[in-house]
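Take a protein:
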Amino acid sequence: MITDIFDKALELESGRLLLRPVIEDDADALFEIFSDQEVMQYYDILPLKNKDEARELCDRFIRHFADRTMLRWAITEKESGQVIGTCGFFCFSDEDSKAELGYELRRDRWGMGFMPEAIGLIMRFIYENSNINRIEAFVEVPNISSQKLLKKLGFSKEGTLRQFEKCRGELIDITIWGYIRNDGLY
């Protein structure tokens, strides 16, 4: 089963980053990230208004980890020791051997190569430790930066889903991106 990955060693490391599951102590860092209007511009929740909402978000990540429905890593910059974002998988399907990818990063770390480094780590992890075949990512049409990131990571743009979901009070178009095991980068 895909969710057997929750029983693996989940601390992942690269040259500049340490990834580990989100913990309660991450709430302040998550508030800084998730309250930023620009970071949240294309996110499916509104920017956080206070630290109580950040604690609730943190608790949600932890709760979904405990029930094995979401694996969300805190992205920690080794040099500063600071949590600079999160990334992970959710919407696991054993029947279809797939999961969905999600991520966000502090604005002051954009363009520094942290997100490709972090996602590369978790992509290798999931392909080495599960029978997963497909990773999907759903990106709002105007979110060009995220689309460039996925292309750089080897994902293929598979199409545009018109008026796919209601977000911020209106129906929006979403691009769907896919990466399958046979793509062979991870």
